[in-house]
Structure to design on (500 residues):
């Protein structure tokens, strides 16, 4: 069985830990690899490598830094397929879905290659007589990224392209469930010309994360994962003096107004609810039809489509939905369906007994698409993030009731409304207290040159990911004021300088 290790200082690194975790193929249910779980001494090695690479990398002209990223981008275009296969093998998502993930990550690299433009800074001449002032953005030093299983390529690439382009060095701690893609990214960065030590991968669990959170040489932590861990990362990281952005979980609602195109809404819900088996932080997990008539019409349209979902391994190109990440997660998702049933929801389509009959995949972590109607705010399946292919229908009588429902939820990552009414759509986008909003767009994931992030318990920290928010997160401002001898006073100045 192959053993996945770390990548430090430009080379694979075995480390000194004897702890390891199993890496499954979710489609077969079998253990295919094992991944070493770093000790804190291994983390120290990675931090030391990143720290010693930083002075030279941070002073490398931005143009040269982004040329390396440009070559990395071309490698990604050429070999994205190889990366997508690794994602599918460990995560389970379909090949096309994995390719889409690679492209969305690659777009952040494209954005990051403009670093010389957005690092330009500001200059003011004659802020006082003979005095000039300029502001520049400088890198922070060693930055770390801690990422979730559901996007093993895209989420790390929300972080490191911008961190590197702006002159930081980086340590990635990917999810231990699908760690292989990170190592390939590290090799390709090296092949593109990245100096050793600038990008490092440390595999591990809480031990590695805690070592990063407490290490005095780690200046910033970028995290994406579940809300309890995001909260912990933010609290511990900031208590240790680090800059932290920590994105958490989600429960995304989609309002369907009576004037919406019902075919379009149903098809949007299929992709947004069941794509990637619902393991997306921007998945729509709650449909909120306004009026019972809309709910009935929508369910009528959804039922045959959910029943017809092609559920299978990524190796079958006709699969539309793959397995869940682990057997443990599968039973958790089934538990939410059972709790919904017990608390009074109507099970319209039940995915719990789905059987995968493709030869060799009978033990995969598959579940069928599930639809629950008459869900209410007090049910566990509504309050908590399920992270599976389970679509809840919460019926509401009016637009305002639907808004109140969304505002009552602790998560506020993404949301959408389907309507033909421009006034309603405009009010929705202005008033809704959610970070990412779609108007007739079910998964409103901002492009790389905008920024990604939710509100409320979906984020801890001030900066969203990528776009200019990413640049702000990975840089700090320095303002220099200069005066040259011809403008200098010779007498001492004891009052607060006003320069005028
Ligand atoms: P997770 O929180 O279990 O793990 C995320 C990372 O934290 C992993 O690298 C993991 O090793 C580490 N970790 C786990 N437990 C830890 C602990 N006790 N102490 C320290 N570190 C720990 O999340 P996951 O299951 O990998 O991913 C799914 C979650 O991520 C969902 O909640 C999903 O909504 C969320 N997510 C959010 C976004 C977003 O942008 N808001 C994007 C993708 C995923």
């Amino acid at each position: 069985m192959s053993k996945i290790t770390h990548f430090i200082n430009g080379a694979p690194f075995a480390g000194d830990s004897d702890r390891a975790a199993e890496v499954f193929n979710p489609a077969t249910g079998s253990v295919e690899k094992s991944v070493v779980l770093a000790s804190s001494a291994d983390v120290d090695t990675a931090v030391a490598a990143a720290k010693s690479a930083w002075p030279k990398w941070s002073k490398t002209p931005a143009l040269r830094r982004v040329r390396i990223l440009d070559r990395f981008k071309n490698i990604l275009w050429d070999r994205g397929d190889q990366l997508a296969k690794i994602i599918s093998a460990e995560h389970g998502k379909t090949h096309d879905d994995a390719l889409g993930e690679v492209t969305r990550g690659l777009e952040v690299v494209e954005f990051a290659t403009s670093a010389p433009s957005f690092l330009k800074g500001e200059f003011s001449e004659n802020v006082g007589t003979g005095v000039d002032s300029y502001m520049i953005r400088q890198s922070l030093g060693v930055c770390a990224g801690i990422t979730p299983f559901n996007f093993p390529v895209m989420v790390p690439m929300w972080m490191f392209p911008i961190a590197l382009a702006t002159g930081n060095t980086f340590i990635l701690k990917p999810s231990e469930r699908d760690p292989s893609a990170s190592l390939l990214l590290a090799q390709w960065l090296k092949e593109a010309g990245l100096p050793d030590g600038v990008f490092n991968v440390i595999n591990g669990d809480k031990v590695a994360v805690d070592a990063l959170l407490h290490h005095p040489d780690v200046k910033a932590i970028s995290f994406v994962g579940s809300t309890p861990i995001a909260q912990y990362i933010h609290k511990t990281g900031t208590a240790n003096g680090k800059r932290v952005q920590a994105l958490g979980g989600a429960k995304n609602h989609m309002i369907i107004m009576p004037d919406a195109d019902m075919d379009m809404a149903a098809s949007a819900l299929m992709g947004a609810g069941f794509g990637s088996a619902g393991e997306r932080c921007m998945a729509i997990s709650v449909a909120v039809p306004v009026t019972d008539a809309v709910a009935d019409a929508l369910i009528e349209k959804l039922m045959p489509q959910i029943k017809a979902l092609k559920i299978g391994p990524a190796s079958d190109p006709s699969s539309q939905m793959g397995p869940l990440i682990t057997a443990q997660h599968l039973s958790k998702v089934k538990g939410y369906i059972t709790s919904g049933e017990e608390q009074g929801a109507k099970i319209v389509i039940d995915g719990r007994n789905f059987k995968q009959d493709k030869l060799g995949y009978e033990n995969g972590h598959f579940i069928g698409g599930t639809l629950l109607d008459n869900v209410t705010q007090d049910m566990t399946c509504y309050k908590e993030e399920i992270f599976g292919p389970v679509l809840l229908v919460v019926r509401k009588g009016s637009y305002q009731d639907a808004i109140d429902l969304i505002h009552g939820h602790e998560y506020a990552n993404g949301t959408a409304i389907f309507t033909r009414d421009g006034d309603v759509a405009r009010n929705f986008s202005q008033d809704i207290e959610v970070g990412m909003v779609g108007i007739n767009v079910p998964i409103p994931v901002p492009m790389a040159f905008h920024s990604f992030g939710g509100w409320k318990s979906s984020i801890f920290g001030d900066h969203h990911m990528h776009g200019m928010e990413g640049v702000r997160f990975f840089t700090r401002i320095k303002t220099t004021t200069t005066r040259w001898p011809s403008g200098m006073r010779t007498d001492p100045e004891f009052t607060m300088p006003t320069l005028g």
